[in-house]
Structure prediction request, 413 residues.
Amino acid sequence: MKRKSALLTALAIVLSLFVACSGEAQPSSAVSGSGSAQTSGNDGEETLVVYTARSESLNNAVIENFEADTGIHVEVVTGGTGEILPRVQSEASNPQGDICWAADEAMLQDYTDCFEPYVSPEDANMLEGYKNTNGYSSPAFCDPTVFIVNTDLAGDIEINGFEDLLNPELKGRIASGDPVNSSSAFQCLIAGLYDMGNGDPMSDSAWEWVEGLIANLDGVSLNSSSQVYKGVAEGEYVVGLTWEDPAAAYVRDGVAVKVVFPEEGALMSGQCVSIIRGAPHMENAKKFVDYMLGESCQNYVGQNLTVRPLRADATLNESLTPWDSIMRLESYDGVWVAENKAAIQIMKKIVDNIPDTGTIGEVKKEFFRLYVANIKDSFNSLVKELNIPTNEDGSIKLDVNGNIEGLDMKLFF
Prediction:
């Protein structure tokens, strides 16, 4: 872990130079909903406010059935995970919502003080590895990282795992999103790093695989997750790195594609539902969690959607790969990934976008020389020389905007 911290610290400095040179900015979108959430009322009110980052089809399947079965009206507020969680946190002193349905346990670890302790009676019926272990968040569904393969284009090309993506026959024929902007692309990158690094996502072998993959992508970096699976289904690419849900949906609809779970191991983190601390409609919130984990809801999703339910006795439709046919990535450390997500994305950006020539190329080469040699002491001297404060674990201190504290960019010019 010390090695990883040192490397990620070096990475952050190199990124600062890269960002300053590129001047790129990422767009953001606002959380959408039917209006501000209701803030008054009591537990007897037949109302519930749900903040969700899940897909429209899953939201509809769970929420509409919950309303029909319980008579409780649900106000839905949708947005990305990066929008929902800060909103819950900002409203902590005056909660506007009741339910947060937005991320896996690792991503929620820094928000547990925003959630109400609750373990549903239905938790005992969930699969091993997908139970509520922290007392706040209950894994309900799973959308694993997979490959979607166009069976007409693939022909005799073997595509069974991450190693196969380096096949020269696939050069320029692999669809992948940008891990900085696409959650599915990021999760696929993480799965590949763990698998090809034999459990160590920051190992030399893991990043050698990344360099090989980038070379085989041959410049393909799609702007959205949907372009990946659509591009494969429509015959533009042979294989794409995506989620199971959209890929399995094409299988269900009879399109000439197949879903491949990487033989080295698939990332299968559970997406959690949590009750917001001080929820205005607390009893209804508990009913919602119980309902989502219950037999009726889990079976409905498993039988009618292409999202994977996590209840042990839930039935799956034919478009979903049976559990016993999947190799699960066991070495995945979700907490570490959540803590270092930005740095991993940045490292991919460095490999992908910085040329090997010129001044910036020399910086890139020097970084990877230090990386391979693992010269931690030399790096610590650099941090000291630049007067950059670090945390106890060796990571760089960041300000509230995510910028490196105390870094004078003029030193690089």
User: Anything to note?
Assistant: DSSP finds 14 helices and eleven strands in the chain. The longest strand covers residues 47-52.
